[in-house]
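Hey, weird one. I pasted the Leucine-rich repeat domain-containing protein sequence into the form twice and got a warning about non-standard characters only the second time. First submission, copied straight from the form history:
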Amino acid sequence: MDSDDQELLQLYQKSIYDQSLQINYNYTRYTNREIAKVKSIKLAEFLNISKVYAFNCPYLSLEHSPQNLTECSINNCELKSISGIEKMINLISLELKDNNIADISPLKSLTKIEILNLQSNQIQDISILENLSCLEKLYLNNNKVNSLQGLGKQLQLRWLNLQLNQVTNIEPLSSLLQLKRLILDGNQVEDIGSLCNMNLEEFGISNNKITSIEPLKLSKSLNELNLARNQINNIFVLSEMYGLRILDLESNIIEDITPLKGKYIYKLLLGSNNIQNILPLAGMEPKELTLQYNEKISDYSILRNMTDVKYLDLSSCKLQNASFLHQMTELITLKLSCNKINDIAFVRGMRRLHHLDLSYNSIIDLTPLQCVDYNTTIYLHGNRICDMKAIKNHDLHNITLNFNYITDYTHLDQDEINEMEEPSAELVHQSNILSKINQPQNYLQMMFNRKRDFLEQFEMNMYEVNDQIQRALEEQTIYVQTFVMLMNESECCQ
């Protein structure tokens, strides 16, 4: 035993008396903080330890892998080679995520494995997985897989995650009739006909090239379905899926949502479609609802009865009157950016709001915001605001006010003024406005960058960010119209 492992043994022996060390007989935890120089996991065999967890140990070696391990997690350790792991023939659960592994051929002898997590590596060839006949859960998300040959024999597979790969053909999955959870988001799949005999409970295939979801007609047990960012226009097959609880249909070309009638869906995402009529949603009580970028909807009255909604996005819907929102007092997040709203009296009863986006509207009077919680984050940039007195008692660090008509900053300290980046009073000056209008490309690029910064603050996942950035580009025309409007009306506030 080398000196490094002797040090580990001493720590192990100490842990018998010192429970603060995260080392014990059944579960060994290697981290840079606790064990600074461990170079292999062979000590697990010496101590007859059956479970090992290693995180952020770039020096870790599998050369002397013990046979007695049943669970092993080696994550974020910069592993390129897993040579030696073939000796762990008793493994039931193996995690090797967030490494640099390309060759997984050493896994072919681990025939007892039931759970295998290989996410975030450099894996392309998965053909050796056909030898792992006990696999029940397989995670291959964020790799370079382009062929699913090797998975067709995994008849007992129940969970399969292939998100963020390069898959085009899913025909090899047709025999996996035990699958309950299948994630294919972020690939290049056009046809899901291979899934026609499956009865999935969770299915994700966002960011692909799907036009038809007819093959899902037998999956009546679906409770979570993600079809966002495809080319779907017909959702009739959903009419029989009464178990749906989470449904994402954003960024498609859907017009008719009648098949959603009578459903109890608590998370319903319908943004960026061509929807005109939302009456089929009557009676539904979702917790989260998005309808942004559906500019053809004229009647929002059914939302009055959705009093349990916590998250609502109606951005870019050409709204002028949002009074139908006044009964939605349980809202925590409300997004109404890029509309034509001037009266915000509807927020008076919304005392649970944490996030309120009213940017790029026609708001002048901020008095209703006096009823909103002091710490609520409020986006008010791009409106017609002249006076800040109504919100003087709010935490102004949580409010954006740039691109308005404000000239009186007596309620702000210097730091708050600086945080406004470019005081909106500049827009009141005709020459500055004309200068910006005369150089639209530079100015619109600046606006695009600002929009991107806001999106990053929302901590969205990568696809949501990309989607929103694309939408921000579409909003550039709206921004130009807003600035022209400000130029024409600036005399009112001078």
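That's the output from the first submission. The warning seems to come from a hidden character in my clipboard, not from the data itself. Residues 452 and 470 are 10 Å apart (CA to CA).
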